[in-house]
Specification:
The chain has helices at residues 12-27, 51-70, 87-93, 144-148, 156-168, 194-201, 222-230, 247-252, 259-272, 291-304, 321-325, 332-355, and strands spanning 3-8, 31-32, 41-46, 75-80, 99-100, 126-133, 152-153, 173-178, 209-213, 237-239, 277-284, 308-313, 361-370, 373-377, 383-386, 396-404, 409-413. The chain has 12 helices and 17 strands. It is globular and about 60 Å long. The protein binds iron/sulfur cluster. Residues 135, 137-139, 142, 144-145, 179-180, 216 line the site of iron/sulfur cluster.
């Protein structure tokens, strides 16, 4: 039997698309393999958001040259954000690659006769569902709009149909994905929004949880916050990247909002959605970020106390406005030090937030079993471990929390 191998790096969108690609190959009778050498089709699903990721893709592509030389019969394809509009240029640089195809597309060179939707065959209990591709925002540091293109939403009916099929295959929770989910629907005929989509998905029998990533502070609406507050399947978790606590840096980043607006949004979310877990992203070491400006970020994070903070060190991406206009003038050691300071702060905050769950009973959707322990997530997205002899996979379990850490919780099944 023919085998396929998919190598993936990058965001959840890439992971979701790789899962679907795998299903595409399986519908054609291919079998998955973890070993590139065993495969007759190899696909690299690439990421170029950071230079480091791009370097890894290029190294991987170069490493596959030898394999292609000894085995010219294999098909080597590349998708993901490396594939921009200049495919001819890519073909010149990587002549050993047979096909380049855009992120979210399918290998057009293979004909599909089955009409089954391209969904993961054996989806995990919680599965990612892309709802909008691309981004229209052009934040000054970001390469995504150049690589993934302009925003393109999938119709509500198509997404609902797909989620119903996923539920039939055992899925209990879906995470809706988009670079900016708050833009969802503006390009569709009736201009529905994310709240409309959530309302529709909330009616699907057998689906227990719905969450979504990533929001944009400039576009997040009160209507969406109300929908999260009132729809019972929509989980109390919101991911809202602030990026910086300084208005001048936000302006240079072209984020389109101020710290004051962001703070107001968080207040509204917390007042309407009790118990909501909030996560954010920050970039440290943006060009010319002074110590004082960095401290503004630190004090905003101390004030707003997020459950999770994803921290990135600024690195210029060629082709972006920031790379063209600003000098990358914060020394690497300084960037690292700023990263460490936020990591330390966040560790303390998360320790305190999670400690409040000690002795409480939470609902956990069980996603996996590793090293003899079941693991799953609360409605707010917190990772919980527990032991149980029964088969708990895909179950909603009541777990009493007995131990907490900044990163996860441990507990016991609550006896009725
Ligand atoms: S919102 Fe900004 S950071 Fe996010 S994908 Fe779009 S351009 Fe990039």
């Amino acid at each position: 039997m023919h085998q396929y191998h998919i190598w993936t790096i990058g965001c959840q969108m890439n992971k979701a698309e790789s899962e679907r690609l795998g299903s595409f190959f399986e519908q054609l009778g291919y079998q998955a393999t973890d070993t590139a050498e065993e495969a007759s089709i190899i696909v690299l699903n690439s990421c170029v958001v950071r230079q480091n990721a791009e370097n890894r893709v290029i190294n991987k592509l170069n490493a596959l040259k030898a394999l292609k030389r000894t085995n010219p019969g294999i098909t080597l394809a590349v998708t993901g954000c490396l594939v921009n509009s200049e495919v001819d240029q890519l073909k010149e640089i990587f002549p050993h690659v047979d096909h380049f195809f855009k992120p979210g597309d399918y290998p057009q060179w293979l004909e599909r006769t089955e009409l089954e939707p391209i969904l993961p065959r054996h989806p995990s209990p919680t599965t990612f569902v892309p709802i909008i591709q691309g981004c229209d925002n052009f934040c000054s540091y970001c390469i995504v709009p150049y690589r993934r293109g302009r925003e393109k939403s999938r119709p509500i009916a198509e997404i609902a149909c797909e989620v119903k099929e996923l539920v039939r295959r055992g899925v209990k929770g879906v995470t809706l994905l988009g670079q900016n989910v708050d833009s969802y629907g503006h390009d569709l005929p009736d201009k529905p929004d994310l709240a409309d989509l959530l309302q529709e998905l909330n009616t699907i029998d057998g689906l227990a949880r719905i969450s979504f990533l990533t929001n944009h502070p400039k576009d997040m609406s009160s209507r969406l916050i109300e929908a999260v507050a009132h729809l019972e399947k929509v989980c109390e978790q919101i991911s809202l990247p602030v990026q910086s606590g300084d208005n001048n840096i936000l302006k240079a980043m072209r984020r389109g909002y101020t710290v004051e607006h962001f703070r107001q949004l968080i207040t509204e979310i917390r007042s309407k959605i009790p118990g909501v877990a909030l996560s954010t992203d920050v970039i440290v070491g943006f060009p010319s970020e002074s110590e004082l400006q960095f401290q503004q970020t630190v004090s905003l994070l101390s004030e707003l106390r997020f459950d999770t903070v994803h921290i990135a060190v600024y690195s210029p991406r060629s082709g972006t406005a920031a790379a063209q206009e600003f000098e990358d003038n914060i020394p690497p050691a300084e960037k690292k030090e700023r990263l460490n300071r936020i990591e330390q702060l966040q560790e303390n905050i998360a320790t305190e937030i999670n400690a409040r769950l000690l002795g409480k009973t939470v609902e956990v959707l069980v996603e996996d079993k590793k090293k003899g322990k079941w693991q799953g997530r609360t409605r707010s997205g917190k990772l919980v471990f527990f032991s149980n002899n029964g088969d708990c996979l895909r179950q909603l379990m009541k777990i009493r929390i007995e131990k907490t850490s900044p990163w996860s919780l441990q507990g016991k099944v609550e006896l009725k």
